Amino acid sequence: MAHSFSYTHYDLDMQRAGTVIEITLSAIANVRLMSHGNFDLFKNARQHKFLGGVAKQSPIRLKIPENGHWHVVVDMEGHPGKAESSIRIVPAAPQKPVQRFSAAS
């Protein structure tokens, strides 16, 4: 059985733990960051786990909790209208150069 509401799906493919996903929305919407297995459950209207929830401001940022294949779903279940959305992967902050010290003689 499929969902009775429409949603926008973003397949993030393989991502590393700690990667930040930034979701920009034009209206209040539900945002769900899910593993590949949970996305399969979601598609079939089954119980699933996700990070996120009702996004009342934009953009919102969610962090990938573990290495794997990830999906983002934006849906309007329980909210009027339709939200336009876009996502981007936020580049990790560049590592500071390691400061090296010489032993004092």
UniProtKB/TrEMBL annotation:
InterPro entries cross-referenced by the UniProt entry: DUF1883, DUF1883-like_sf
Short name of any one Pfam family annotated for the protein: DUF1883
Gene3D superfamilies, per database record: Atu1913-like (4.10.1210.10)
Domain DUF1883: 5-91
Name of this chain's protein: DUF1883 domain-containing protein
Source organism (scientific name): Shinella yambaruensis
